[in-house]
Amino acid sequence: MTPAIAVLLAQAPLPTLLVIGLAILFGTIGAKIFQKLHIPQVVGYIAIGVAVGQSGLGVISKEVVGNLEPFCFFALGIIGFMIGGELHRDVFKKYGRQFIAILFAEGIGAFLTVSILISGVGMLLGMGPAESIALGIVFGSIASATAPAATTSVLWELKTRGVLTTAIFAVIALDDALALIMFSIAASIAGKIIHSGSGGIMAALGHAGYELFGAAVLGIAVGFILNFVLRRLRDRDKSLAFIIGAMALVIGLTMALDLSMILAAMALGVTLANLAPRRSRETFNLVERFTPPIYVLFFVIVGARLHIQNMQPWMWILVVPYLVGMGSGKIIGAYLGARWTNAAPVIRKYLGICLFSQAGVAVGLSLIADKEFHDTIGPIIIAIIAAATFIAEIIGPPCVKFAVKKAGEVGLNVTEEDLMLSYNAGDMLDRELPSFAENTTLTNILRTIAETDAMSYPVTDADGKLTGIITIDELKRTFVAEGLTDWLLAFDLMRPVPDTVTVQTPLDEAVTRMREQELEYLPVIAAEGDTHLAGMLELAAVNRSLSREVLRRQQLADG
Predict the structure, then answer these.
(1) Measured by CB atoms within 10 angstroms of the end CB, which terminus of the chain is less buried, N or C?
(2) 369 & 474 share domain
(3) Residue 241: which region, alpha, beta or left (left: phi > 0; alpha: psi -120 to 50)?
(4) What 3-state class would DSSP assign to 458?
(5) 12 domain-assigned
(6) In-domain check, residue 49
């Protein structure tokens, strides 16, 4: 950033609302560019945030990031709520033992590898043994955390479904709780090692238990109340207001009571999803349609708040063992946990590389460490976690995308609306439906339609160009014209074509036009300006095809 721009921004910081608008707009543009490069959208959001934030142009200043902090908490709450919606009791009945084993294996694996590597490198850099060991165990406990936001963003973007996707949701839902417990123990031990006046292991564990248990109770209680309210509501707009209000209430109470925010939001989502599995689908669909701009702004702010350009060179040396230890520990731990519990091969192979992303929880724990060890290792922890988080948020989403693609789970969690967006009219048209030349007699028409179930038939001229439509209603009127069946022609019976689409018309557009005009069939022509008939689009057949494909993909994923 040039000195002139820096001075200008310092003198006249942008209004917060303007920053929000710019962040959502440019974050969306950046995501589309990265998507064209086959890179997950979330990387684009973060990259734009870095470019305009404290490590870049400084458009989003530290003050603005502070003003938007409540919004970030709300976004994290929504992410936790949506993750909770994926955790149904049937999943835990089937996979619960596997998930718990994998969770502890990958968390402890990351803790051990990072602790050993950081302690060793710290000693090589000239730190004392006590300081190096304390630094290692604190870093190890933070390494066990996984950012749910970036990971789930990729899964939702790619519409994934299957055993690997289920395992990812379950592990990241519980990962932060494990990280909080491990950090409480590690911080207490580190305090004893370097004599920072920590309150002891039991006090640390007691506080962690209060945070986790209290958050779970709060989320479950609000979930029961919200389910009671939604069961009696019929207005969808009011339903969304109650849902958002309940989430804001839970998030606000966790901040006031010093509870785990993400865990409370997850508990709220889990409660709703399991109290009313069918009705809650609409609840989560409502929230999902509400959230895209929130996700965009959240990740742009995540990138904007990173401040890494002033790190000393030796600190960057510690970033490498932290990332290597975190990645290798999670991969090895997840593999061993999956193998011990006979989990599916795709979980053994790919779960570990889906757990690289780190953001809110890791940064939050580093801030706590900075307060507890401000005069010793605190500044080192917060600087290195900031740099490591930046790198992890960049490499984590592509790793998730690679894993779910290799597992064959991409595109298996689609709806009929999603599928419709991926097809053209030409993909669904009926090319076998008979058409009639203009000079076809009524006798031949009746003989032909007796063997079909269609309600409309196209009429073409000598060159095969569409000229009209014959419907069953027109044919019924001819039954009173006895003796004219050999004289009446298709030309006499047809009526003007109500509408047409081309084979390249998006299917959702074609279906929308059919529904608006109350048409069961729609002629499909070759191209604009070329009225040669390609076939007929039947609304009922389209709906059957889409339903079958959704069911096929779900069965493939669940199988």
Answers:
(1) C
(2) no
(3) alpha
(4) strand
(5) no
(6) yes
Token output for 56 = 């870049």
Domain stop point among 361, 385, 413: 413
| pLDDT band at residue 474 using 50, 70 and 90 as cut-offs | low
Domain extent, residue 431, equals: 420-558
CA 184 vs. chain centroid, Å, equals: 30
Per DSSP, 426 falls in state G
Residue listed under structure tokens 């091969």: 345
Supply the pTM of this predicted model.
0.64
Residue 517's pLDDT band (cuts 50, 70, 90):
confident
Cβ-count burial of 228 within 10 angstroms (0-12 exposed, 13-18 middle, 19+ buried)?
exposed
Q: Give 471's strand partners.
A: 456
The count of other CB atoms within 10 Å of the CB of residue 124 is 10
Same-domain pairing of 362 and 470: no
Same domain for 303 and 400, yes or no, is yes
| 406 in any annotated domain | yes
Backbone φ and ψ for 497, nearest 5 degrees, come out as -70, 125
Per the DSSP assignment, residues forming a β-bridge with 436 are 459
Q: For residue range 151-200, what is the model confidence (pLDDT) as tens digits?
A: 888 887 888 888 888 888 888 877 777 777 787 777 777 777 776 444 55
Query: Domain ends where: 413, 431, 454?
Result: 413
Residue with the two structure tokens 């602790």:
115
